[in-house]
Amino acid sequence: MCANVELWLIRHGETEWSLNRKHTSRTDVGLTERGRQRAEELRDYLAGTKFAAVFSSPMKRALETCAIAGFGDVAKVDEDLREWDYGIHEGRTTEEIRAEMPGWSVWENEIVGGEAIEKVGVRADGVIERALKAGSGGRVALFAHAHILRVLAARWVGLNARDGRLFALRTGSVSVLGWERETRVIESWNRGFEG
Questions:
Q1: Residue 101 is part of a domain; what is its CATH number?
Q2: SMART domains in the record, alphabetically (predicted)?
């Protein structure tokens, strides 16, 4: 057990699709101007913070946030940090989906043509395991997306992957997962930079 490793979860900055609340997984959209500004604020916030390892989703929005924040040259791409595959719901809002399927929830319904929540949980567990090994008693930064990071937080504290629904996460935010003695805890959550 690496009870002194902290995981810093960093959600990418705003994109046109996140701004419009569209489910975005495989579609490789970049940051908006506001998203780039948020990444600059992340750079300022993280200045001087030392990370034993930095991992990023392979998607443009995460890599761009990571680079602007000052960690692009040291980040390793981790395929398991990709966002949940939304299948036929890619590019659609919850409201649009509910017009056809009342009461639909990404957390509760089957994702046709996409990824089961249990598989997302397995991916999150793998990220946690690799981060703990790479952390060597320090901090590990994970640049990724809302749902995968929410699932990762749930798995960190021993909850079911589906319980990621309990953790809201805005764009360009920082959250820290750590320890209280030997117990995994959420030290801080959803730290934003709105003025």
A1: 3.40.50.1240
A2: PGAM (SM00855)
